[in-house]
Amino acid sequence: MISVSSTFNAFREELDEHHDRRERLIKASRDITNLSKKTIFLLHRLALDSLTDADDGRRTSAAAKGYANLREVQSLYAGLRNDLAGDRFWRYHQQVSPGLQEYIEALSFTHFLEHRSLICFETVQRSLSDADHVPYLPLTTSDYLLGLSDLTGELMRLAISGIAQRGGRKQAMEICTFVRNCKADFEGFTSHVRDLSKKQAVTSSSLEKIEDAAYAIVLRGSEYDLPPEMLDDIVASTIAQ
Amino acid sequence: MISVSSTFNAFREELDEHHDRRERLIKASRDITNLSKKTIFLLHRLALDSLTDADDGRRTSAAAKGYANLREVQSLYAGLRNDLAGDRFWRYHQQVSPGLQEYIEALSFTHFLEHRSLICFETVQRSLSDADHVPYLPLTTSDYLLGLSDLTGELMRLAISGIAQRGGRKQAMEICTFVRNCKADFEGFTSHVRDLSKKQAVTSSSLEKIEDAAYAIVLRGSEYDLPPEMLDDIVASTIAQ
Amino acid sequence: MDANDLETINASLDFDSDLREKIRDQVTAFDKKTRTMVGLLNKIHSTPSDVIPKLLETVRPVLSSCAVITAGFSEIIPQDQFWRWKDMWSNSLRTAVFAATLLQYLTDGTLMPLSTVSSNLGIQEEWAGRFVLPVEDYLHGLISLVNELSRLAVNAVTLGNFQEPIKISLFVKEIFAGFAQLNLKNDTLRRRYDSLKYDIKKIEEVVYDVSLRKLAAPNQPTHA
Amino acid sequence: MDANDLETINASLDFDSDLREKIRDQVTAFDKKTRTMVGLLNKIHSTPSDVIPKLLETVRPVLSSCAVITAGFSEIIPQDQFWRWKDMWSNSLRTAVFAATLLQYLTDGTLMPLSTVSSNLGIQEEWAGRFVLPVEDYLHGLISLVNELSRLAVNAVTLGNFQEPIKISLFVKEIFAGFAQLNLKNDTLRRRYDSLKYDIKKIEEVVYDVSLRKLAAPNQPTHA
Amino acid sequence: MDANDLETINASLDFDSDLREKIRDQVTAFDKKTRTMVGLLNKIHSTPSDVIPKLLETVRPVLSSCAVITAGFSEIIPQDQFWRWKDMWSNSLRTAVFAATLLQYLTDGTLMPLSTVSSNLGIQEEWAGRFVLPVEDYLHGLISLVNELSRLAVNAVTLGNFQEPIKISLFVKEIFAGFAQLNLKNDTLRRRYDSLKYDIKKIEEVVYDVSLRKLAAPNQPTHA
Amino acid sequence: MDANDLETINASLDFDSDLREKIRDQVTAFDKKTRTMVGLLNKIHSTPSDVIPKLLETVRPVLSSCAVITAGFSEIIPQDQFWRWKDMWSNSLRTAVFAATLLQYLTDGTLMPLSTVSSNLGIQEEWAGRFVLPVEDYLHGLISLVNELSRLAVNAVTLGNFQEPIKISLFVKEIFAGFAQLNLKNDTLRRRYDSLKYDIKKIEEVVYDVSLRKLAAPNQPTHA
Amino acid sequence: MDANDLETINASLDFDSDLREKIRDQVTAFDKKTRTMVGLLNKIHSTPSDVIPKLLETVRPVLSSCAVITAGFSEIIPQDQFWRWKDMWSNSLRTAVFAATLLQYLTDGTLMPLSTVSSNLGIQEEWAGRFVLPVEDYLHGLISLVNELSRLAVNAVTLGNFQEPIKISLFVKEIFAGFAQLNLKNDTLRRRYDSLKYDIKKIEEVVYDVSLRKLAAPNQPTHA
Amino acid sequence: MDANDLETINASLDFDSDLREKIRDQVTAFDKKTRTMVGLLNKIHSTPSDVIPKLLETVRPVLSSCAVITAGFSEIIPQDQFWRWKDMWSNSLRTAVFAATLLQYLTDGTLMPLSTVSSNLGIQEEWAGRFVLPVEDYLHGLISLVNELSRLAVNAVTLGNFQEPIKISLFVKEIFAGFAQLNLKNDTLRRRYDSLKYDIKKIEEVVYDVSLRKLAAPNQPTHA
Ligand SMILES: [Mn+2]
Ligand SMILES: [Mn+2]
């Protein structure tokens, strides 16, 4: 018969291993969050520059830089593969989830800049898989939705900061419609996904900010009986050197 | 004249470096906290075994193991030396303080087991210095006091869990006096050190638990007109094989 | 949102919410069983030691029948999702561990190891990832066991059984020494472990009373 | 506790609490100066552009006199403890940055760099570790500057100065582009930076109104 | 405990817990309907005014179908127990009030009174004690209506409908004046009522923008 | 808002606010009575057992006089609104249950059933929907009873009454067994019921102390 | 406890609790009056400027009647206890200050000083220690006044009164300059004062809109 | 703003802020004294009963010296403003009450009445309106006294003084009975009073332990 002492010794090893793994994942998650946040800032910078471009060239290259940045995050996930294998993913989901959501936010922002559309579930999952399409971790619907929900805040920033530039007004209108649709689509999920309704409230307030911006655009064009492009040209020539 | 863009670029580098250093220190602090906590558990185990020893041999060896464990923490601090040099220490004090306090708790617990006394400020500072007595970081009075304040909780655990053993009753009485003195000594500092009064409340409740234990010891000896050692012998012979 | 995605997500969310409903039903059934066992075992405090074996016989079938419940869990929990849902049944599972180990102690004075508890509850190795008995829940069950035994030490004396506290004392000390080997975090387990000290202290006091009043005969070693 | 230690600790705590008192006095004095500057600068919104230089002359001596304050800080703050106490004067320091940069903008339309603000406030390089102007506080000051300029753009037009909004617009856009290069955390700076967008939007609207009503002459480039 | 008493008590507890389950199901169904209505009505912010009537036609049948739900409640709630359970469906009920009154406003610009909302939801007078529309929930619904209309005022302008804000302004001010005459205690209702001021201010600013630019003429003031 | 509607709504709000005022007055009066009873019953802890009957006589009239209060409630609470307002007097009602059942236990050692408590408080069957004694409040009262009896077990021994703890132990275990058969939800009641374990443990320890010292013989075990 | 002492203590507690009740009644009455004034004054936003005087006439008698309330306070508050109870009526008092100063501004465009507000509310000098108008409450009232005037600036333009915003702008800036000279601590007052900036900005934007469109000429700048 | 008014307002704000500073200094001094007393009194838990009188002699002069502090308050607090500032020193005052009453209990086992505490602290009747000992603070001090005595009951036994807990028990029960007769509202005082029950239970358990073991005989019950 095994002594109490030796069974508890085995327990100690098991518990220590668990806590060590948990620590590792927490630290990795912090790194992932930071890298993702930096990517989002980078994208805002690039988006601001590319707005005035007539063709989609610079926009695509902005996205390309985003993807390149996020490849680092993906390789971090590849490294966590074993720590998240099998039933471990759900055991450590709480530790992993915040970083995952931030990554999805950054990835979906990149995707939006390239395609002006919502990234689909499959694409996110594929980005977290190896060359043979074997996932590093199973993407959950809740992480997917919560990550996307954060995207609306970044889109609001994009809409407002671009608004003073040529083309920014059109973009703001587009984003307004896009965020409105996001909000409507997500509404049905709120009762199923914890914390989503809190994020929906943030989306609502972002949407209102975009709507106010759209309103201001319409309003200030309304006093002049000229097409918006021509108004833009007059303003541009006033400011320009 | 330097362009706005290039000055902000310099700002970015400075801010990124700051955030990266902050992250590094947060992570290191988590490691330090974990190592210190593990040391405390180890000491409890060893203290329990050594209690019945007549001579101080095993007690000293318990302390030795504690010191050995904490050497790992000390080398972590040695590694953080540069990140905490000059004015950086205070810049990142908030990130570093929790780990430091946990380390001081573990170190003072080790010291208590060896000397049955409170570790002095100088000894703690020396433990965080290199061979030439150059400190890795300046020890602050508040970290020192807050770390010691946590010690009383561990002493309460030590007193209660040893109480069922021979010698444990004497130890509980000793600890009762010791913690009472700690509480009295710290009282004067509460108005100067943030969060100390919260910890004093914990110390008070630990002290009450020890007092209750001391009370029970006196009470149960009171019905018999024999010296405590003799009572212990009778009980021991009843239980012993 | 992509129409395809919308459908998949909705299906997935519906699946989860159905699953939660099913688990809840299983937990209710599990709870009923553990509550029955606790109710029966509660009688040990007023049952003379010679009638205890008969009492235990009434508990055994209920314990065995828990296998139906765990099988139920193993069927509905999707592969690898054990940790996702486990909070829903943790309490019941810990109570089952408590009942099984108390039964064992009262039967032959030994500590039932995790693997035996696991098999007693009908849990099968191939369910890994769907339903297992985690170390943490086993330890919670043991703490409840010690809580109960400190109460039993007191009541056994009231019933005139002066040997029991000594037996309990030796048994419980071994468990306590086992716990002392663990590195716990500042969580529920840690807090409950801290409270064990008071149980041990209480048991010691009973042993003290009993020995000094010379009520107990010198102890025959029962453990090795 | 060791009697020696007790004494040392008490001495150290007393020293800190005296120091805090001294800093508080310095901050009160600093605050008074910054409030005076803000009060004077508040008049730019109702002052015709030709009288602005005269107004600025009243602010300059107050700004210069801040050197007394910073010197005071540099004397009482112990070496390397800058970051320990800086929260106490951050607000005043940011307001001083705001005043200095606004003064500069109104004087020659340029952005005063950090090092110039620092030396304008009398801060000396050898004070490193005791008193410096951190990047973060400089940036906060700039955000306040933009807030104020968006208000000025509006009021300049009311006063009949249609050129000012365009000048402000170009100046502010450059600052905004600078901010866009930073990676900010989710802190106050981030939140205030987010709000900058609305200031820029407001300024743009004024520029729009002014240009379309042909109130402003084509702009002479002032920056390169 | 007396066996008889025990049985009665347990029957009562079980009845309540079954009832709670049934109510929860009804609330889920109710919620689904109100969420559908809110989803449809949310489109008013991007729908040109001439298409609004068609949009409203899609909402009407959903509103009518709420009668099934309220009938369901009236059947399961025991006489006298309306107030015991009402917190469970208050939110859904308030949303239903919001949807009904918004529908009415968009249809003919009038405010649907409490009794009409009540009958629109199929609530019958003889249900008193089992299911009614409390005054408090009606008022909460109205506040949500005002919140929504302040957003609509903005979006209507974006869609080129400059008359709508003026219409909304008059409608909302009348509701506000009504609230001002109520003796609200210091509770949630009062707090939400206080927040109406911000909605009104926002609407007034839209009306200001529109009339300043002569895009629409505000109606003649009706108060003196 | 329609003037008619407004009037109805205001009348309803005013009625409720008057009613709340009236209930508050009744609750104050009720509270005074229960506090008097608790004050008197508090003396049992220092009263020798032979003087207890005389003490109880001073409580009885106060209990009877509660009928005035409950009648007062039955008059002001509108039909069907019991559950709307009951939180206002729940605490007092539970204290009254506590006093009534303690009185009964001290008189003849039995547990007063819900219906008897109800009639002792003057509550009449035809008040259904206006004023009743809910199961939940009765159970809360019983838990307070057990809390008090664990204290009494201790103090009885101090007063030299060594038989009382044994009597209390049997009584309390029966109540506990009764609770164990109820399906309690995870609410306050459940939490307070869980805490009963500590009271029982305390009582068992008193019985242990008394029987260890052969100051009294515990009753024959009644369960097997 | 000493019976004598007990009696004194109880008398003191009862006196305070009665007093609190009486004050609460006075506050309710005061509240009603201030709510009426606010309700009437709310109409200024939709009233053409020529009808305003008539509207003000309806407010004046209500303001005068506040003297009854303050007299009531002066009678029930014990000498020296003004500061003990003042939090109970601070809100109402501040609203009264707001109403009085708004009335004055609309009458002749001037700011009513503290002493005049005080006498307008019927407060008498010999009430010192029982009932006074504290500086803090006067200042709170002024901040509410500015909040309201920024709203009025917007609505005046909607009503075609383009001169009002300019008048308001000058008036409000003077108040703001006054506040800037006060040594406010970091409390609610300071925070509300800081928020005034937004009101001023809003008013400036209205003046900008009006002057840009040449609907009115801004006054000559008065500061240099 | 009127220059005259502005000056008055500023003078008033400055006076208050100076006063606050002075009060803060007094409170610091007061705090130091009360902390010294608490520090000395804390030793009662480890001091054998025969040395207690000598210990008390060290506390008495500190208590007497509090008269300097209260005189200080009476000089700086303006007539009528006691209630405005009292929150600043409430804590210190309550601690002083605690020290005075504990001193008295340890000296002769009696409860020091409010008026005696007041005069012991040097408070003079003619200071009414400037500095008094409010009933509320006296009661808070008594509750702290009971908290401390429950701890003393335990530690006295450890020091071999088995009679002390019985003395404490009777003393504390009398205080508790006194509190039971007060009409406390639902505030902090009420909550702290409710917590006294735990102290009393603890003391009763000590008395039980002592009398069960015949280490001391509880006094004759004094209530019937
Ligand atoms: Mn984001
Ligand atoms: Mn610790």
TrEMBL record, chains C, D, E, F, G, H:
Keyword Phosphoprotein applies: no
Record-given protein name: Translin
Taxonomic superkingdom: Eukaryota
Organism (species): Pleurotus eryngii (Boletus of the steppes)
Compartments in which it is found: Cytoplasm; Nucleus
CDD domains: Translin
GO molecular function, one term: sequence-specific DNA binding
GO CC entries: cytoplasm; nucleus
Similarity comment: family membership: Belongs to the translin family.
Parts of the chain that traverse the membrane: none
UniProt KW keywords: Cytoplasm, DNA-binding, Nucleus, RNA-binding
Classification via Pfam families: Translin
BP GO terms, sorted: RNA metabolic process
